[in-house]
Amino acid sequence: MTAAAAATPMIRMSGVDKFFGPLHVLKNIDLEVPKGQVVVVLGPSGSGKSTLCRTINRLEPIDKGTIEVDGQPLPAEGRALARLRAEVGMVFQQFNLFAHKTIVENVMLAPVRVRGVAKDEARRTAMELLERVGIANQADKYPAQLSGGQQQRAAIARALAMRPKVMLFDEPTSALDPEMVQEVLDVMTTLAAEGMTMLVVTHEMGFARKAADRVIFMADGEVVEDTTPEEFFAAPKSARARDFLGKIL
Ligand code: ADP
Ligand code: MG
Questions:
Q1: Residues 6 or more apart whose Cβ sits within 8 Å of residue 4
Q2: Which ranges form a coiled coil (predicted)?
Q3: Ligand 2 being an ion, which residues bring their Cβ within 5 A of it?
């Protein structure tokens, strides 16, 4: 990577506004995420965290402002948008695996269909990824035969199969039974340590403290605080953040 390429932020949002009808959901968001950074997004329900994530791969269009991924403006549609989506991996609260395909088939699908990768090569890569997330032995099962934690790890492997430049996680552990939360966080912590750029919406404060380089606190569609986890947890500046922490800690 040249110095200029390294200096280009992975995500750059400038003056982004988003409305749902009369509801102003994102208000003049300016956000830069440098390459390799792990950003945890905190905030009360309805503050716009999911919408923020969804605008970054254009699952939601924006009404004003600009978003760039690795220096490229978000394409509106077509092949260019499909390429962009391939570079921005997304993991949701609901795993969204294809129920009638096996785990390894789920992981192979997008590389074969979107990237035109040969099936045997896609299978090899998929098996390596399943190994990495610790579920290679579940490869030939169907999603319903796996635990929630295993399904979410499969969903992470599926996102990684497209070799994304950045990974977005929207409450990836919120739908899991408590005993399965840690195995998913462990996979995410490893990814972070390997240098993946990550934007993570979560209520897991242990993960925020341990893995985040930076914490963003949102309220009512605005970024209210943008600081280190140490500062945020020790001394949140805004009343809304103090109130939020008081409720969850
Ligand atoms: P969070 O993820 O922080 O809970 P969201 O981004 O999901 O917040 O939602 C922000 C606001 O936008 C909420 O008031 C929510 O009800 C509203 N909202 C989200 N998605 C839609 C939609 N598709 N249509 C209308 N309103 C929506
Ligand atoms: Mg949400």
A1: none
A2: none
A3: 49-50
